[in-house]
Design a protein that fits this description.
- The chain is built from 4 helices and no strands.
- The chain has one domain.
- The protein is elongated.
- The protein is 81% helix and 0% strand.
- Helix 1 runs antiparallel to helix 4.
- The model has no long low-confidence stretch (mean pLDDT 79).
- The protein is mainly α.
Amino acid sequence: MKFAFEITRFLLFFTIGFFIFKLYLRKKGVVHEIKNIPFFIASWKIIMFFVLLGIDYLNDQMGRVDLFYYYYEVLYFPIILVILSFIINFLLGILIFEVIFKEIMQEFIIIIIVILELIIDNCVLFPIFYFL
């Protein structure tokens, strides 16, 4: 993992998430809960970072003896990681939202943020940092 890539991802997601949730909470009329948004986003992304770090660690611990490992590493693992990160990110975002804001998530604001993050990560940030 590149440190600059992870810091840029975190700051970009934090900024986008803060403004989207600020608009969402104002639309719902819950202005006093805006102070919890930074804690919500920071805890969500920190937990997600450690989950992905754990998945990457488990992948490195797998045996590298057979020829299938190369194809797994190049073809299957990135696809599995994107699918797992999408599902875990979505469920973790809903869980943390319901714990911090103490209300049931009814809209699809979390899925919009997760999809936006995946698009920005894979289409913008990854190509930029891959070639640096």
